Amino acid sequence: RVHGDSSLIEHSSRALTFLMLWTTVLLILALNYGSLPFFFHVSLVLRLIWSYATVWLSGERGFAHFIRGSSHRFICLFHDMDAFGMHMNNSTYNRLGDTGRISLALNSGLLAALRKRGFNFANGGVNMYFKKEIRFLERFTLETRLFSIDKKWFNFQHRFVNARTGDLHCLGFCRFVVKEGRRTVAPSEVLREYFADQGVDSDAATALIQAFESRVMNEDAVEPPTSEAAMPAGASARSR
């Protein structure tokens, strides 16, 4: 009888150890599911599909979306956080920035314009200016727009804005270069062809390009660069 009780206790102890082990493993996976292989790529594709469908249904495609910019809502989860500060890790800002830029290029038709002409593009660097931390479970909106251009670079602006208070958490700038083979294609050339595709007349296109060329990119440039009200006459292109 004693031997039987001992065997039962031993089996129960093993079962409890096994249960605790797998509970721990599942808890770690649940908290860090965003770090699992391919999760970012799958979630990016799903978010882009949702974004494309939403923009298509709203009718705000093409040039109208280019002017307004892309907007995506997120929540800071456990796998997004810094190991020590209990706030969103700096690498997460860059990762989410990809979503904003791809969404903008896709829904505005800018990506299609580049592909149509056989142009390639490459990321040349990202600067992030942190204003206020994003805490665990805090909701925020990522706004992405083209901010400025120069003779070589497209400079995109990222604004991480608190969804409840409207406070700016982080301001980011990412620069892109466009290539045709080994030739660097001037941003003004790309935009002029893109605007022509979108039905923007030449005078309005010139005014927009000059506006983009005049902006200074720095950490004080916290406001959105463009709005519907700022569009020159003749720039109200059709949606595509």
Summarize this, please?
44% of the residues lie in helices and 22% in strands. The chain has helices at residues 2-31, 39-58, 63-68, 90-108, 110-116, 187-197, 202-214; strands spanning 70-75, 120-130, 139-149, 154-162, 168-180, 183-185.
Tags for this model:
240 residues, elongated, alpha+beta, single chain, 6-stranded antiparallel beta sheet, 7 helices
In percent, how helical is the residue content?
40-55%
SSE ordering = HHHEHHEEEEEHH
Low-confidence stretches: none
What value does the Rg take, in angstroms?
24 Å
User: What fraction of residues sit in β-strands?
Assistant: 15-25%
Biggest beta sheet summary: 6 strands, antiparallel
**Total beta-strand segments:** 6
Which shape, going by the Cα principal axes? elongated
Please give the count of helices: 7
Taking all residues together, what is the mean pLDDT? 85
Our measurement of the CA-to-CA distance between the termini, rounded to an integer number of angstroms, reads 81 Å
What structural class do the secondary elements suggest? Answer: alpha+beta
Can you walk through the features of this model?
The chain is an alpha+beta fold and 240 residues long. It has 7 helices and 6 strands; from the N terminus they run αααβααβββββαα. The chain has helices at residues 2-31, 39-58, 63-68, 90-108, 110-116, 187-197, 202-214; strands at 70-75, 120-130, 139-149, 154-162, 168-180, 183-185. Strands 1, 2, 3, 4, 5 and 6 form a 6-stranded antiparallel beta sheet that branches. The longest helix has 30 residues, at 2-31. It is elongated and about 90 Å long. The N and C termini lie far apart (81 Å). The model has no long low-confidence stretch (mean pLDDT 85).
